[in-house]
């Protein structure tokens, strides 16, 4: 686990060894790997290739496992960020081929697997990773990223330099690229709370898409290729078979994700996903891991959640040492500058701040944190999935009466705390999102604003549906679940998980995204995954382990009570910030619209909690990075 950086100096304009721009990139992201820093400069196609790594020691802490790592013959070099969970299996395979290892690290296993199989090695990897692999004899460079985008990789390319890094802001910090705001990113963000890949907030800086690789071996612009294969769909399945296979694969996934030479912890919400992980850890006889929850005060339950109650019950039932961090509005004032400085690409999801805060607590006791991320996307756990299924099932009726539904749900009160506030918020969101076009309807479900007829994501969702199942409901459900896996999951959930945990030098792992498990679940019909409600497969596995109290609770979500905090005196600085017209953000979005949202929220007429958080977060980030 680390931060990796690369500069291909095409015209020999930089120092031959340890050029200043590379050192600047390493220093800006030192928190990603504070245990060791390494550099290497090598000739490449008439120029120089400069590699850099900040290492966070998780597997094999010896210095011999530091990076950049070189093969025994000095020909091959590797910089690698992440963890290969099946490295024991791959190591044994390579030992059988006569490979001799000098470390116990997954980095060295990956190095020799790439030497042996080249790009085809990517197909064998079960893990999260971003990597640079260089063959100094052929002067050929391979860059790659894991299938779901758990580990980030950004790049820019011009006539003088090809630059690549774990963070976009490191590329601009090199001083080799003029830092400019990519204006369309602001509109993406205001619609979806994140930037649609391959773009970033920085002009000419791009993300390598998840499940992709790039080879540089000549003067032409490198081509981006996907290595993520097609999933074979199952048709003949039984519930008993699915339960048995999922259970076995999930047990293997949990054991895979506990590998390492540092202590592990678990983020515990008291929901199905994290509680099931805790029960499996106990069941398999693994060493008890500490569990961590971030909670809202009880007085803010209507704007936050009651996760704390269930997290405590889960810790008691499955025997973990449990730690809690209670959110208070003054925490935001105290930590928001540090928080915003560490953000690489803004995600307008308040879970980012909570992940930042809880990661600091976990790091005090562990070097790795397990997370339930990915379960909702795989097992259809979001409210929008069930709502979309009902929309498709009753498509003709819904379309006919959509105008009535929109008008009715728009009248529901959500601006003040009351017992049905959360339900009304959900109904209003779903009611305002329904359209005649199934693709547009699901995009509206996932977005902050409706009616996104020209959305890039809309085209993507329609294309993914084009070769789909002949059954209307099944093909659109599958397209929707795959859309969430390839868009919302990497650009929101995984991006903030990596960015905010690595800010505290903490490795975040996601057992539900273990490759054999994901391949199997994705092969199941979408309708089958939703047959008995949200995440019914995981709920049954949890109930088998005595967790019915957790499987029958309603889903609340991991929400920051920002809307409530805006009414507090100590958040006056946030209200003042939103009202400053001269801010850069108001060159790209309507100042009047934001003021309307703010006043309506403060007067408790409507709930603009999420929208105001997204605006404030981006406005503050822009002030730091584009003063």
Structure description:
The chain is globular. The strands form three sheets. It has a six-stranded antiparallel β-sheet with strand order 2-3-1-9-8-10. Strands 4-5-6-7-11-12 form a six-stranded antiparallel β-sheet, covered by helices on one side. Strands 15-14-13-16-17 form a five-stranded parallel β-sheet, sandwiched between helices. Strand 4 and strand 5 form a beta hairpin. The chain is an alpha+beta fold and 627 residues long. 44% of the residues lie in helices and 15% in strands. The mean pLDDT is 90.
Distance between the termini: 32 Å
Mean pLDDT: 90
Give the strand line-up of the largest sheet: 2-3-1-9-8-10
Determine the fraction of residues in helical runs and give it as a percent range.
Answer: 40-55%
Topology:
Elements: E1 2-9, H1 20-28, E2 36-44, E3 47-55, E4 69-70, E5 76-84, H2 87-95, H3 106-117, E6 127-135, E7 140-145, E8 154-157, E9 161-165, H4 168-173, H5 184-192, E10 206-207, E11 212-216, E12 224-226, H6 239-256, E13 264-267, H7 272-283, E14 291-296, H8 307-318, E15 322-327, H9 329-342, H10 351-363, E16 368-370, H11 375-378, H12 383-393, H13 395-400, H14 402-410, H15 421-433, H16 438-446, H17 456-466, H18 472-486, H19 488-502, E17 507-509, H20 515-523, H21 526-529, H22 536-544, H23 548-551, H24 562-565, H25 572-578, H26 591-602, H27 609-625
Parallel strand pairs: 13-14, 13-16, 14-15, 16-17
Antiparallel strand pairs: 1-3, 1-9, 2-3, 4-5, 5-6, 6-7, 7-11, 8-9, 8-10, 11-12
Helix pairs in contact: 2-3, 6-20, 7-8, 7-22, 10-19, 12-18, 14-15, 15-16, 17-18, 18-19, 26-27
